[in-house]
Write a structure and sequence with these properties.
This protein is mainly α and 478 residues long. It folds into 2 domains: 137 residues, Fumarase/aspartase (N-terminal domain) (Fumarase C, Chain B, domain 1, Orthogonal Bundle), CATH 1.10.275; 203 residues, Fumarase C, Chain A, domain 2, CATH 1.20.200. The chain is 58% helix and 7% strand. The strands form 4 sheets. It has a two-stranded antiparallel sheet with strand order 1-2. Strands 3-4 form a two-stranded antiparallel ribbon. Helix 3 crosses helix 4.
Amino acid sequence: MKEAFRIERDLLGELPVPAEALHGIHTARALENFSLARRAIHPQLARAYGEIKLACARTNRALGAWANNPAKADAIERACRELAHGDLGGCIIVDALQGGAGTSTNMNVNEVLANRAQKILAEPPAASGSDEVSPLDELNLHQSTNDTYPTALRLAAIRLLQVLEKEVVALQESFQKAEKKFAHIVKVGRTQLQDAVLTTLGREMSAYAEAMNRDRWRIYKCEERLRVVNLGGTAIGTGLAAPRKYIFRVVEELRDLTGIGFARAENLVDATQNADVFVEVSGILKAHAVSLLKISSDLRLLSSGPEAGLGEIRLPARQAGSSIMPGKVNPVIPEAVSQAAMLVIGHDATITMACAAGNLELNPFLPLVADCLLTNLDLLARADDMLCRHCIEGLEADERRCQRQVENSTAATTALVPMLGYERATKAGELARVSNHTIRETVIAQGWLTGGEFDALVSPEAVCRLGTPERNGRDHNS
């Protein structure tokens, strides 16, 4: 069956649009022009746009718009709520990467909301220019792409930051549980990948938990940076074509609607042309990605082998690791998390360049910023959840291997220095290598320490003690 079309007009001429489509000619032109990402804008950006349009519509209504047609006002508000709830997300179809500083997104939203409102009013989709529900004169009333798009981006980012924060907290708590679980396991600590001093597996986990705690606090503080918006500034921040009452009221309406403490920027011109806040937020996300990448690398090293590597921990087996090597199980979860972290770091560089490339009164590259920033928020939340549920919660330790490595490693000799002194501890390590005995066996055989004294020096309490206690009177030179 042949698809039916309606003809719409704009300043460039006529264009057919699918008869039952909620979008109009501006969206149709954008679909012809932009096919870079081959995916629509982020769903959370579309939902945020619904909330922005609802705040604008309510403000305009309070100031007298549609006073003679409350049914139209109700229909517009209902359409905005549907978009905000995700019901119309499938109609926001413009490409994520687009020219025009987001104008195609704004017009896609305006057209869909206008035509949806007309459907609510039991009218068929109307062409642009109709005096029924106008995408431009009513859905875009007292607005511009240049104030609605960045405000919607901020709102979308805040929503996703709140999701990310919860995932970081869950990962932090998982590491804290591992810290307690492994507190009694003494192991070799390494610097420059060489045996250094003794520590506990619990202390290693505590460091990861603390890194997540810092990231959690940074992410929480990010929201403050995003609450300052330029809504009401219209084209370049001067509020052109918007009444003063609207400019002063619309952000209050958005704050009441979302429950988020939005504030109008003191300098709307600055807030319209400068996008440095997104670089700041992206930098915080990059810091979290760096933490994830470092932790994932550590997990791969600590679980390496298992027979021919460090093998101090066992990661949950998630899937067979090879099509040719029987029995091989790879650290696939840390590997996948590492890739997400690397992509976030790369996107941060892109955001930095895009924000720096703005010109004069506007940054035309916010669609790229939005795509990278919102993608990063999704990636990090999913990576945190994956690492927590599929790896850290099922982490196990090989206590015997850790103990053998402690007894054989020169790292154990460092723990003996308070009792034996540096030279004798060094000699103990040399004798152990030559005789093929453990450090413990060597110092006991030499009569330098008893088994109990050695065990006390390499106990969890000793290796985790802050500083070295005073000697008990025993002369390590005797």
